Amino acid sequence: MSDEYEHKLEAKSDYTGDASSVSTPDIDAVPDAELPDQELYHSHSWWTTYVFSQDAKYIGIQYALTAIGTGLLGLVLSWLMRIQLAWPGLGWLEPSSYYQFVTMHGMIMVVYLLTALFLGGFGNLLIPLMCGARDMAFPYVNMLSYWAFVVAVVVLLASFFVPGGPTGAGWTLYPPQAITAGTPGYNGGIILMLISLILFVAGFTMGGLNYIITVLQLRARGMTLMRLPLTIWGIFTATVLAMFAFPALLVGCLMMTLDSLLGTSFFMPAMVSLGETLTHEGGSPILFQHLFWFFGHPEVYIVALPAFGIVSDLLSVHSRKTIFGYRMMVWAIVGIGALSFFVWAHHMYVSGMNPWFGFFFATTTLIIAVPTAIKVYNWILTLWRGNIVLSLPMLFSLGFIVTFLNGGLTGLFLGNVTVDVPLSDTYFVVAHFHMVMGIAPILVVFGAIYHWYPLVTGRMMNETLGKVHFWITFIGSYAIYFPMHYQGFVGVPRRYFEIYDSPYIDVSTLLLNKFITIAVLIVGAAQLLFLYNLFASARLGKKAEKNPWKANSLEWQTPQMPPEHGNWGKELPKVYRWPYDFSVPGAKEDYIPQTQPPSEIIGAKVEKT
Amino acid sequence: MSDSSLDNLPKGWKSVPNDLGSDQTAFKGVQWGKAMMWIFLLSDTFIFSCFLISYMKGRASTVVDWPNTSHVFSLDFMGVPVPLLLIAIMTFVLITSSGTMALAVKYGYEKNRKMCGSLILATAIGGLIFVGMQAFEWSKLIHEGVRPWSNPFGAGQFGSYFFMITGFHGTHVSIGVIFLFIFARKVFRGDFDTGRRGFFTTMKSDYVSIEILGLYWHFVDLVWVFIFAFFYLW
């Protein structure tokens, strides 16, 4: 559009012909401000500063710490599960507690850690800073969003203390078993789980509205959508997905709560339980699966898209190279997001639905591989002949590419109906989704924390500890999940709390369980090292210079670092370019921040963005 | 952005790529709160769609026949059972309240406090009448033995879906009514003229929030039309 506009402008000035009246156009011009400067909320008490804070940066840190704390519990649960699997003779766990731990581990990691950390944590911290806004559009509601999340976490954790303990229905909470006698927590824990999820959705909606609107309506002058960092594109698209996917979860949870508390039969067929005919009749268990996976599959991308976006920025900054195919990357993110709503039933191939229905979903699933592959190629081409600095964020980003590729390829196996049927409910599935939406996004989380830590604390994290953390985590997670692929092929079923001797499972396969568990404990210990680094560096870390990574995006261009309340001092930033002008020929430095006006870099061959 | 520069923007479909390709705001001249309400409503649409699609699936797969709705929802009028009588009145009241809301928005932007406030009050009263009639309908059905888990007319899922969906919608209406009363008070007190700050949000009041509330109210009415069609007419 701008090209055409400039042509017209030139043509017009030729037409007037009066050279004296036409001054040289100001090359630093940006469009006039459309909006008055945002009015900020200023806290004036201890409570409104440190507890009910309305500053998005602070809320982001609150979100991140709460999510990481909850995730730590999920980590401990996984240790207990693995110890049980490796040494069932120890008798650490009852079968029922094993199921409860599987369920809580899954739900905590997917929803309360990853979703909350990526969108609530990084979203709140980075969206206003990277878009050049002073804060979110509606800070009050943003604050409510965090506290709704806290209440959701408290309700979730409370289920450990009710009679019967937390639910043991598996993180998918399939009825009828989730609310039928025989499943742990069928009349107490499950209710708290459902209420907690409803609270989470309500809280997330309040935050999500803020993230979307801040990106759409509160950008800095000159910041077009196509100049946004890919981090923002990832978080923005994931938030849109969440706004449309969480409703299905909310409805499913509400209906199951009514089934359990009021005795309705939305999901409950006529059943005989413990020798007694239940009063339920005529409900459809498959309906819940559809509702759950209509949420559940976009949820995978709610976790993955921010990771895609963040990793693109990390790769670009730490290899001093323009991101390859920026527009293609944006459209791939949007395309993956849109397609993710048309693939949900590939989680239900063995649910008894019509096989032709399965083939439709297999097709859409394989189509998603196209934009995903584009992204992987573009990451590799971004690295191609780049000045790769093996800093911590770069190491974790490289680890992400490999791990994501690995998990993505096994996804192609499982996406095909005929291959999926024998593999479903085996450890192959466990290995697949842990690789693709467990390890891969978590590696990005680590990379992002090492990258943006100075922005939050003004100090760098310890490099040596970080490298130890990376290598143990990276190699360790392969030691954990590679053997699981093999176990799955052999046919070891998932969700069994003890694998018995059976004709088709060798002793050697069982021995692998011990190996995996030892790897789990080592990797787990490395995470404690990371936590030490995270908290100790806030005090002991090396003081960071301003813009320590020499990045272009706006969050590093604030007058103070770490940025103060209101982010930008007196004047909002003006943006002249995209955030990927690295190693531009003819430029003095190897990076050109988004705020640097064209008049200061005359002679540099920047791309027109 | 001044109004004159808004007039120079492309119109119709051309405005879409223009808005999306421009800086600062993707929707030119739209206050952020209004855009936020639209996105919330889109999300809420998904909630109601999930409810209604679940209802269709549930109704299609029950083992017992679905109750005859024109019989269940009929009201005795002078000894004659008239199907859908109550619902017709409810729908009429709710849709009329949408009209008064639209007028309130108009008078709000004209800064006609008296008309604006009274029309918001009228809308709120329309909503109250609707919720009242819904309570009447619920109690009538409960007296006839309809429960969320069973009913004497047919499939038990009838009561489940009926109470859940109309209850969820009724909650939306009730929340709307509460906000309408709050806003009526704010209009009469002149908050929108003086830019008085919100008690919780500490943000300046602006007449645009009446339009935002109006969006919500129209949405609630629109959802009712679908519930009406799928529940009472099917």
Provide a short characterization of the protein structure.
In chain A, 61% of the residues lie in helices and 1% in strands. With 609 residues, chain A is mainly alpha-helical.
Characteristics of this structure?
heterodimer, A: 609 residues, mainly alpha, 2 domains, globular, B: 234 residues, Four Helix Bundle (Hemerythrin (Met), subunit A), 9 helices, 70% helix, 3% strand
What's the arrangement of secondary structure elements?
The complex is a heterodimer of chains A (609) and B (234).
Chain A: H1 2-16, H2 46-51, H3 56-86, H4 95-131, H5 139-158, H6 189-217, H7 230-261, E1 272-273, E2 276-277, H8 285-318, H9 326-339, H10 355-383, H11 392-415, H12 417-423, H13 427-457, H14 463-490, H15 507-540
Antiparallel strand pairs in A: 1-2
Helix pairs in contact in A: 3-4, 3-5, 3-15, 4-6, 4-7, 4-8, 4-13, 5-6, 6-7, 7-8, 7-9, 8-10, 8-11, 8-13, 9-10, 10-11, 11-13, 11-14, 13-14, 14-15
Chain B: H1 3-7, H2 15-21, H3 32-60, H4 69-72, E1 74-77, E2 80-83, H5 85-109, H6 113-143, H7 157-189, H8 191-194, H9 208-233
Antiparallel strand pairs in B: 1-2
Helix pairs in contact in B: 3-7, 3-9, 5-6, 5-9, 6-7, 7-9
Please give the number of β-strands of chain B: 2
**What do we call the CATH homologous superfamily of the largest domain in chain A?**
Cytochrome c oxidase-like, subunit I domain
CATH topology of the largest domain in chain B: Four Helix Bundle (Hemerythrin (Met), subunit A)
Class from secondary-structure proportions of chain A: mainly alpha
Protein chain pair with the most extensive contact, residues per chain: A-B, 58 and 49 residues
Mean pLDDT of chain A: 92
Q: Any idea what the shape of chain B is?
A: globular
Helix fraction of chain B, binned, reads over 70%
Radius of gyration of chain A: 26 Å
Q: Which residues of chain A form runs of ≥5 with pLDDT under 50? A: 1-22
CATH T-level topology of the largest domain in chain A: Cytochrome C Oxidase, Chain A
Helix count, DSSP H or I runs of 4 or more residues of chain A: 15
